[in-house]
Amino acid sequence: xxxxxxxxxxxxxxxxxxxxxxxxxxxxxxxxxxxxxxxxxxxxxxxxxxxxxxxxxxxxxxxxxxxxxxxxxxxxxxxxxxxxxxxxxxxxxxxxxxxxxxxxxxxxxxxxxxxxxxxxxxxxxxxxxxxxxxxxxxxxxxxxxxx
Length: 147
Ligand code: SF4
What we know:
The protein has helices at residues 18-26, 59-65, 75-79, 87-98, 111-117, 121-126, 128-131, 133-136, 140-145, and strands spanning 2-8, 40-47, 70-73, 102-104. It is of the alpha/beta class. Helix 1 links the parallel strand 1 (2-8) and strand 2 (40-47).
């Protein structure tokens, strides 16, 4: 059983989680790492607290109290305009401080976001193709279905 904590970008703090929960159910995007028959549980779901992400310092501790064994940084951190500049630090901090593995991404990238980013100079500079490599390998049809 995977016990997952999700941290979302505070720009999307009002998000109802529709894409993340769909992707988890359908094992798409960064959730394709879990087998279809592997039980999963969301043990925590929180915003980062707003730039520069103050909640990231504390919220994994709450996740741990619920048995969390892996943290996902939501796809909104990857595809916001601009992408979150702190992803690498969040990942390193959570892994070091809480000894929890951190995955960059949750649901597949909606294709319209990827196409816009591909036209922006700061997308290349943001290193997201490497950081969120599994999301980049999603099929075009699935990305379209998340538009
Ligand atoms: S850009 Fe990063 S630090 Fe700023 S609100 Fe979004 S996730 Fe938090």
